[in-house]
Amino acid sequence: MTYKHILVPVDESPISYAAVEQALALAKPLNCQVTITSVIAVDPFVGVDFYKVAPAITDYFIEAEKNAQLNLAEIKQSFIRDGITVDTKIVRGVSPAEGIMQVADEVGADLIIMGSHGRTGFKKLVLGSVAQEVLTQSPIPVLIMKV
Question: What is the CB-side half-sphere exposure of residue 144 using CA atoms within 13 A?
Fold first, then answer.
């Protein structure tokens, strides 16, 4: 199978960088376009009184957006240096898995490369797994980098 467009969802974790490295290794020889995405979710504030935390929410989103933009710009340069066509996207206000699936559909990705902590058992049940959710929802192949 040949791929034309790879989606790489990232956050600020070392696992994201493993996915980026894998995408760099695959994109050039396969002549793939790459989209790197970051999802800014509202998760930290679910279930709290909006009026009491409105300034905190605003500060959170401003800071999260700034960090995501800087992170994406830095990662983008790695692909540009290797002569790989790359784009970046930030998704706001949805769950990480939902945002990843939206971008995959929007850009016509045919492969998703992402990291996973590899949690199992109780930790996975309590903490959830974005990678697992994407894996079960995705109609396209998903390559999971486990660190």
Answer: 14
CATH 3.20.20.480 holds for 5-146: no
Residue 54, token pair as written in the block:
């409105």
Res 13: pLDDT: 85
Per-residue pLDDT tens digits for 30-61: 999 999 999 987 655 455 555 555 666 667 77
Domain boundaries, the chain: 5-146
Element (H, E) at 112: strand 111-116
Give the tens place of pLDDT for each residue, 105-118.
Answer: 999 999 999 998 76
CA angle 136, 141, 142 (to 5 degrees): 65
State the Cα angle at 71 between 96 and 106, rounded to 5°.
Answer: 45
Average pLDDT over residues 17-30: 95
Report CA-CA distances (Å) from 40 to 22, 48, 85, 100. 23, 18, 24, 11
In whole angstroms, give the CA distance from residue 60 to residue 58: 5
Q: What Rg, from alpha-carbon coordinates, does the chain have?
A: 16
